[in-house]
Design brief:
binds iron/sulfur cluster; 40% helix; 7 helices; two-stranded antiparallel ribbon; mainly alpha
Length: 150
Amino acid sequence: MIDEARDGIFHCRMCGRCCEGCGGIVVSPGDIARLSAFLHLASDEFVARYGERTAGKVKIRSGDTDYCIFFSKEEGCTVHEAKPAVCRAWPYFRGNIVDPESLGLAKGFCPGISPYVGHDDFARLGREYLREHNLLASNPTCEALTLILP
Ligand code: SF4
Ligand code: SF4
């Protein structure tokens, strides 16, 4: 029932808009471990092939087309099952959960968010989703700054 309700407010259309750009996807040690296992690589090999180090953090590299290196126009996210926490958390970022105006902007950016969902329902279901998927900012394995506190 909750999944149906969530599907009514957000259903990814795989347009790739949120996968475009350089260096926005910071990965935590937990993300690196999950992605490395998914790709059958050692962690350092994963970072060497797909990451770049900036200011002490590891970010996912962009590919030749300025999209995340894991994005495919045909398949969408090619590491979907293991994707970074920040990608798993979208669209339930802190700003969208606490600020109706931010949610309005997110609706204009992401065609997966229902234009009809009210902010209260979005925030309530979003918090539940983050809690269920261990994506709250207090989770020590999850470093994404966009996530909310419990
Ligand atoms: S912008 Fe929204 S609909 Fe498009 S790929 Fe990202 S989450 Fe999916
Ligand atoms: S890991 Fe997947 S969801 Fe995240 S930016 Fe890259 S292609 Fe998009």
